[in-house]
């Protein structure tokens, strides 16, 4: 009997290793109510082995069998022997210790952590999802704190070695910035010329005494991946030379209280609670924190839920206070953030926070990246990109450059821009799950129709943005993204997270769980299993799916941005159609060195830029944006995937020039119009070619004849004295001088 049981375990292990990836093993653990992070092992085979042994010792292999049949119906799974017995050599040995965590109500039936819907006491479940009467006996062996910490680091190494966290450090350039102080007459933050460019956060932290860093970069620049790589390298170091330090990664888009109207939590208490939720078996947060043994990796400072700028500054003030306390203990904190206007207020006189810029890829780096990853295919791709400034700007972000390489390797097609690139990503993910993995969720049924499946298999698409639409999967993911953006607290673009139950309520009740599960399989959705919250895998993917809805159902009024300045009685009564806060109020609140911020945004700007090329009538989409948001309309028209008529282009150029010169327009609105005109093209500039290449010739003004003053008697420089006038003849550049 034992021989049959051993054969069964061996065959089951081989099949699981062959047909499931690590993410899918995690999903199985979730369905079995098993704590994945507490399973020993670093590689997939060892994790599967320990999981099977743990289930076998507790007679739970029959619980696993129907899940495997459901997930991979085309695989012939061996039945659990009726007289299954654990082989004697496996009845002892590595036993996963109990990982106790508290659950309110019947956790097995839904998302009820933190909500005692049944009204009874806390129930303690062990690692295997078993109730108190099945908890291990007190005399069972359990690892000491050092062993638990080693398991934690091993788990980090295993999880962060997955492909999604891979990073080519040859193409990473981090620039430390010097803080000139809030009263600096010029830019407050400038590159530190005394420092090298760093290719990792590990190298940067080792080369500086700074204990707080903000990693700055645009969406797609790799900020989260860099934080995760730091966590991986830290875990590897701790396994080799343990010091007792731990790295704790936390997304700041979850920094809020359950009650959306409540004030933000104290950062220390919030982190301590998060640590207990994620690592209940390790010593308390305070143990590491007060010993100066905490490396905090806080991702997405700009994504903290907030109502407005004032609310955001209040939240930043809490984190500044937290950091002033934290550095005294000797801990290290690394934030990530989109831009300086969000992160600069963190730094104080006593506890400095150093800003670090993730540099975009240069054209030379893009060319080298293509050569390394595409080989012979890279040359025609590079020749297409090298003279296209818009595409070079897009692919200066590693996220998009990686998508480009994946698409060219899969199809050979060169996508025109961002929307086509993301569409290709979704198509490849659908094909992978449908054809290569033959996953049960991607067969004809509620989520995908027969025609949807045929389209995907044969790559038969009606245009560059077409996706399967007959089944419920893609339309549901679109609506989910749209609802998530529509329900965010602030007017800032950010990655949004919602409770799993809330997301399911937004979807078709019949297929809600399958839709979310399919999103995980496609790698477009991600889940915080401990908090029972879901997000899209990346903010740009969230924006993309929401944009598909906006493309079909344009809402120009959603993009409304006021641009007129208030004056006279308008300023007194704060007229609704003028910019608030006013330019004067905004400038008064700035430090001398702070740059003038942009006009208040709607948070839907990037979504609209993705929606414009996917709309059925690009001309109408752009034209309808002119009244509510003229600069955004121009940016949409200038996008590489959008084509509008010459008449509409001329209208946009004319109205932008008028806005730039309008004294009733807020200065920030005039700047926004000028930037958009730069993207669209200023008709007043004439393209010329000279000995040094092409250039744009601006309109030149005639200098009339007359006497002109020069010099200054009060100047401290002798060569600027005395003050006098000079006679000038009229001057107008001739055609030859141009």
Provide an overview of this structure.
- The structure is a single chain.
- The chain is α/β, with parallel strands linked by helices and 738 residues long.
- It has five domains: 2-96; 145-358, Rossmann fold (3-Layer(aba) Sandwich); 415-553, no CATH class; 557-690, no CATH class; 700-738, no CATH class.
- 43% of the residues lie in helices and 10% in strands.
- The protein contains 28 helices and 16 strands.
- The strands form five sheets. The chain has a seven-stranded mixed sheet with strand order 4-3-9-5-8-7-6, with helices on both faces. A three-stranded antiparallel sheet has the order 10-12-11.
- A hairpin with a 2-residue loop joins strand 13 and strand 14 (693-697).
- Helix 15 (398-411) packs across helix 16 (418-436) and helix 24 packs across helix 26 (630-638).
- The longest helix has 21 residues, at 309-329.
- It starts with a helix and ends in a 10-residue tail after the last strand.
- Residues 92-142 and 569-573 have low confidence and may be disordered.
| Mean pLDDT metric | 84
Number of helices: 28
Q: Order of strands in the sheet with the most strands? A: 4-3-9-5-8-7-6
Please give the alpha-carbon distance between the first and last residues: 94 Å
- Point out poorly predicted stretches: 92-142, 569-573
What is the CA-atom radius of gyration, in angstroms? 30 Å
CATH arch. level architecture of the largest domain: 3-Layer(aba) Sandwich
Tell me the total number of β-strands. 16
Q: According to CATH, what is the class of the largest domain?
A: Alpha Beta
Q: Approximately what portion of the residues adopt beta-strand conformation?
A: 5-15%
> What is the SS-derived class?
alpha/beta
* Major sheet size, sense and barrel closure: 7 strands, mixed
Kindly report the CATH topology of the largest domain: Rossmann fold
Helix content: 40-55%
Shape: globular
Q: Structurally, how many domains make up the residues? A: 5
């Amino acid at each position: 009997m034992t021989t049959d049981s051993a054969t069964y375990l061996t065959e089951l292990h081989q099949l699981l290793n062959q047909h499931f990836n690590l993410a899918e093993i995690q999903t199985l653990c979730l369905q079995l109510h098993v704590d994945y992070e507490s399973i020993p092992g670093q590689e997939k085979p060892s994790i599967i082995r320990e999981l099977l042994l743990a289930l076998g010792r507790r007679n739970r292999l029959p619980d696993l069998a129907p899940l495997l049949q459901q997930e991979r119906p085309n695989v012939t799974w061996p039945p659990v022997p009726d007289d299954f017995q654990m082989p004697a050599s496996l009845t002892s040995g590595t036993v996963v210790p109990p990982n106790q965590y508290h659950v309110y109500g019947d956790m097995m039936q839904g998302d009820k952590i933190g909500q005692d819907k049944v009204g009874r006491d806390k129930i303690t479940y062990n690692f295997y999802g078993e109730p108190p009467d099945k908890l291990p006996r007190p005399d069972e062996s359990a690892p000491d704190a050092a062993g638990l910490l080693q398991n934690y680091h091993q788990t980090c190494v295993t999880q962060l070695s997955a492909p999604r966290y891979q990073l080519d450090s040859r193409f990473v350039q981090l620039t430390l910035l010097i803080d000139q102080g809030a009263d600096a007459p010029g830019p407050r933050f400038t590159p530190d010329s005394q420092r090298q460019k760093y290719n990792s956060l590990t190298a940067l932290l080792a080369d500086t005494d700074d204990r707080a860093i903000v990693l700055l970069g645009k969406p797609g620049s790799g900020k989260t991946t860099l934080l995760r790589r730091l966590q991986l390298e830290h875990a590897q170091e701790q396994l080799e030379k343990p010091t007792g330090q731990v790295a704790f990664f936390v997304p700041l888009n979850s920094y809020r209280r359950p009650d959306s109207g409540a004030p933000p939590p104290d950062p220390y208490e919030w982190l301590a609670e998060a640590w207990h939720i994620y690592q209940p078996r390790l010593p308390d947060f305070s143990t590491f924190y007060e010993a100066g043994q905490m490396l905090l990796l806080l991702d997405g400072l700009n994504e903290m839920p907030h109502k407005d700028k004032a609310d955001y500054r209040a939240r930043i003030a809490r984190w500044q206070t937290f950091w002033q306390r934290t550095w005294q203990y000797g801990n290290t904190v690394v934030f990530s953030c989109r831009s300086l206007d969000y992160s600069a207020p963190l730094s104080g006189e006593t506890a400095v926070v150093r800003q670090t810029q993730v540099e975009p890829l240069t054209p030379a780096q893009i060319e080298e990246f293509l050569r390394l990853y595409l080989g012979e295919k890279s040359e025609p791709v590079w020749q297409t990109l090298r003279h296209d400034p818009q595409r070079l700007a897009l692919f200066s972000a590693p996220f998009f450059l990686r998508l480009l390489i994946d698409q060219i390797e899969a199809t050979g097609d060169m996508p025109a821009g961002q929307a086509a690139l993301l569409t290709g990503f979704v198509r490849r993910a659908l094909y992978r799950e449908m054809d290569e993995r033959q996953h049960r969720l991607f067969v004809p049924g509620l989520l995908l129709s027969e025609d949807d499946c045929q389209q995907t298999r044969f790559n038969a698409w009606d245009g560059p943005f077409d996706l399967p639409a007959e089944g419920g999967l893609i339309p549901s993911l679109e609506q989910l993204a749209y609802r998530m953006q529509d329900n965010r607290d602030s007017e800032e673009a950010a990655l949004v997270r919602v409770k799993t139950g809330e997301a399911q309520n937004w979807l078709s009740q019949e297929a809600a769980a399958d839709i979310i599960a399919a999103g995980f399989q496609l790698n477009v959705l991600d889940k915080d299993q401990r908090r029972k919250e879901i997000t899209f895998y990346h903010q740009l993917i969230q924006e993309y799916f929401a944009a598909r809805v906006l493309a079909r159902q344009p809402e120009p009024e959603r993009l409304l941005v006021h641009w007129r300045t208030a004056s006279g009685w308008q300023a007194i009564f704060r007229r609704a159609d003028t910019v608030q806060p006013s330019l004067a109020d905004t400038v008064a609140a700035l430090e001398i060195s702070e740059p003038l911020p942009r006009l208040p945004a709607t948070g839907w700007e990037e979504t609209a830029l993705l929606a414009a090329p996917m709309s059925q009538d690009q001309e109408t989409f752009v034209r309808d944006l002119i009244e509510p948001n003229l600069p955004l309309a121009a940016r949409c028209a200038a996008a590489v995937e959008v084509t509008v008529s010459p008449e509409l282009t001329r209208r946009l150029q004319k109205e932008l020039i008028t806005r730039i010169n309008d004294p009733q327009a807020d200065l920030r609105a005039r700047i926004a119009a000028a930037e958009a005109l730069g993207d669209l093209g200023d008709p007043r500039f004439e393209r010329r070619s000279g000995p040094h290449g092409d250039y744009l010739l601006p309109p030149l003004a005639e200098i009339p004849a007359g006497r002109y003053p020069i010099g200054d008697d009060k100047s401290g420089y002798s060569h600027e004295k005395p003050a006098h006038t000079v006679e000038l003849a009229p001057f107008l550049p001739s055609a030859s001088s141009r």
